[in-house]
Amino acid sequence: MSAFGGQSIKTRNLSKALSDKIGKDNILCVDTKGWQEHPVRLLCNIRKATSQCESVIILPADRGLKAIPKLTFLCNQDAKLFYSVIGGWLPKMTKTNKRLRKTLKKYDGIWVEALAMKKAMEEQGFSNISVVPNFKNITPLKPNELVYQITEPYKLCTFSRVLKEKGIEDAVNAVKAVNDRCGRTVFTLDIYGQVDEGYADRFNDLTAEFPDYIRYMGKAPGDRSVDILKVYFILLFPSYFYGEGFPGTLIDALSAGIPVIASDWAYNTEIIRDGYTGLITVPQNVEDLSKKLEYCYHHVADINHMKNNCIAEAQKYSKDIVADQIMSLINK
Question: What is the pTM of this model?
Answer without folding.
Answer: 0.91
